[in-house]
Design brief:
four-stranded antiparallel beta sheet; Rossmann fold; N-utilizing Substance Protein B Homolog, Chain A; eight-stranded mixed beta sheet; 16 helices; 12 strands; alpha/beta
């Protein structure tokens, strides 16, 4: 009797590579990058490896694109399934993850290509490309940092932030961003000591390295802090909300700004169109011991019973200022999309102004580096009489004396090229904020 052929065992280490290839392929197709959780990859070592591979491929996307152009003159074959994603993960390991042996990076990338029926015919091509990259490693690791950014973005950033900004942006992109926390109790020295964290701008705490998941950090389950980039923590502070004031937080998810407003005793209405994200906002507020009115609705249709004393509008935007944490925005955005978002932002600004009581304060902000979504919008507000808003300049003293982050017009502009006045290392996300009061 003939014996059935044995099923070929997967090489050790292939499974996390297959997961990385699948996730990267989805991001290349337009999905946001979502790190693997324990429910997706149970083994913590495999999970960490898969996340590292995808993250490296995304951070170095621009360089890897240039490498592929140099080694694949005919381009990516059409209808080749996971071929491109497998190549990109292989290159990321060969060039940017030095602790991974070259033979593992190369062989397992080829195996990942073979695992997909559409990519399998191109396995020999993948092997040849990766061996070429291996031979030319010194050349490819010395590529111009500006290649990390699409030409259209690089040119506008040179114009807006100066020629020396791009190398600093590239450095920020290439590094793993630190974890910033907002403590429930301001200047919580005990929490800083427990976490081994460094204060940032007098009101945030920064962990440059961490081994544990956020939920496992000391103080998390007790509700002593929430995760929030220090730049994202600035706009709510500029609102100047006080205890008992009614405050509307438009586009509230993921909830960091809502938590800030609750912490000063304001009566907060948190508004967002995404029900799932708002459910998480409610859970996080409960962990922190805060309460807010949670409203799931389109801000353009929202009609409350009474206007608010203050409104914070963190408008939908290109999010290019978050490229340190979400490098995929660099190749998922385009100029036409920015123009479309800018038009939506003006409609939302008009609605926010209508929801504000006379004498009330409006802060408009975006996590974008694009002038159309930031500085240009502030200029439009100042010259739009139908809004009934007067500009209120922001002082450096309101942001821990960080004068470099205040524009000539009196608005807030952060970006990853700015040095922060803090003993903490690293930089911040790109944010813009402007402030107005409503005429009586």
């Amino acid at each position: 009797m003939s014996r059935a052929p044995e099923k070929r065992r997967k090489p050790i280490g292939l499974e996390p590579r297959l997961e990385a290839v699948s996730r990267l392929r989805a991001v290349l197709a337009g999905s946001p990058f979502r790190p693997f959780g324990s429910g997706e990859i149970a083994d913590p070592r495999d999970r960490a490896l898969a996340n590292r591979i995808v993250t490296a491929a995304l951070r170095r996307h621009g360089h890897i694109s240039a490498i592929l152009a140099a080694t694949l003159p005919k381009g990516i074959p059409p209808r080749s399934g996971t071929f491109e994603a497998a190549l990109r993960t292989g290159i990321a390991q060969l060039l940017y993850l030095p602790d991974i042996p070259d033979h593992s990076a190369l062989d397992l990338a080829v195996e990942a290509t073979k695992a997909d029926p559409r990519a399998r015919p191109f396995a020999r091509l993948a092997n040849g490309v990766l061996r070429n990259v291996q031979r030319r490693a010194a050349e490819f690791t010395a590529l111009d940092p500006a290649l990390l950014f699409p030409n259209w973005l690089a040119e506008r950033w040179r114009t807006h932030y100066g020629a020396d900004a791009l190398p600093r942006f590239a450095e920020a992109l290439s590094e793993t961003p630190p974890l910033d926390l907002s403590p429930v109790i301001p200047a919580d020295a005990g929490l800083a000591e427990t976490l081994g964290a460094t204060p940032v701008l007098d009101f945030s705490l920064r962990l440059s390295t961490r081994d544990a998941a956020v939920a496992d950090l000391p103080g998390f389950s007790e509700g002593r802090f929430w995760v929030q980039d220090a730049a994202a923590a600035l706009p709510a502070r500029l609102l100047g909300a006080r205890s008992g004031q009614s405050v509307l937080d438009i586009c509230a998810a993921p909830g960091g700004k809502t938590a800030q407003l609750c912490a000063v005793g304001a009566e907060v209405t948190a508004l967002d169109i995404d029900a799932a994200r708002m459910a998480r906002v409610g859970e996080n507020l409960a962990r922190l011991g805060f309460a807010a009115e949670i409203v799931t609705a389109d801000a353009l249709d929202y009609a409350p019973a009474a206007p608010f004393d203050a409104v914070l509008l963190d408008a939908p935007c290109s999010a290019t200022g978050t490229f340190r944490r979400h490098p995929e925005v660099l190749f998922q955005r385009n100029a036409s999309g920015i123009a479309e978002r800018a038009a939506l932002q003006r409609r939302m600004i008009e609605r926010a102004a209508a929801l504000l009581a006379p004498g009330g304060t409006l802060v408009y902000c975006v996590c974008s580096l694009e002038a159309e979504e930031g500085e240009d919008q502030a200029g439009w507000i100042r010259t739009a009489p139908h809004l009934g808003l007067d500009h209120v300049p922001i002082a450096a003293s309101e942001v821990a004396g960080w004068s470099e982050a205040i524009t000539e017009a009196g608005d807030l502009r952060t970006h990853p090229g700015l040095a922060i006045p803090s003993p903490a290392s690293g930089t911040l996300d790109g944010f813009f904020a402007t402030r107005f009061t409503k005429r009586a």
